[in-house]
Amino acid sequence: MPFEELDLTAFAVCLACGQLQGSAPREQRCHCQPRTPDWEQQWQGQDIAGDLDLCVLCVRDTVTTRTRWSWLGCDTCRHVSQVVGERYGHRAALPLGRHSLMNGGVIQPPKATATEVAGSLMAATGRWNALRDWQQVEFDRLAEPQRAAGPSVPLAEWQRQCPPSLGASVDAFDRFGVVPVPADLTSLRQAQTRFRSSAH
């Protein structure tokens, strides 16, 4: 099902685990909800048992999650990663693709030995784990003011309270801290400044 056909109003953000839950049209469950054989049956033939997730970096915008070739980062966060990565001479600064080949960071034979390939894959895994750890920390920061409302909030309300934007993506990228946003990337720095001004 194309992203455009998903009913985003059917999704809610679990304020405990940070995952999305809902039915649009299949029932998506967060980590707090039980996985049953009947529930798993509806996801047969799909790599991931879900249609939608929050961006791993800004934790504000959404990404489709159906296959191992889906992105972990939203369009705006991927844009920031690409601009900063190109500034340093790389394809992208952060591994925001679910599959290592999407990130261009894995050395492939015949240019490398099996040991070098294994080392490259382990390094990529470490960066993914760091992003997942960051996602939980950032989610908890954004979720804390909303937890008094109940165990979950509609996705629309989550994004009203934490609106996605270029400035939010730059801010999250900068605070993640692995690669700094260069000062001379003025368009990104200006977006971040506007975001921080509006957030206070």
Keywords:
alpha+beta; two-stranded antiparallel ribbon; 40% helix; globular
What does this structure look like?
With 200 residues, the chain is of the alpha+beta class. It has one domain (3-199). The protein is 40% helix and 10% strand. A hairpin with a 7-residue loop joins β4 (52-54) and β5 (62-64).
Rg from C-alpha positions?
A: 18 Å
The ordered string of helix (H) and strand (E) elements is: EEEHEEHHEHHH
Put simply, the count of helices is 6
**Are there runs of 5+ residues with pLDDT below 50, and where?**
106-110, 116-122
Largest sheet: 4 strands, antiparallel
| Lateral strand order in the biggest sheet | 3-2-1-6
Shape: globular
Query: N- to C-terminal separation?
Result: 39 Å
- How confident is the prediction overall: mean pLDDT? 85
Strand content: 5-15%
Share in helix:
40-55%
Number of strands: 6
Task: Give the structural class.
Answer: alpha+beta
Number of domains: 1
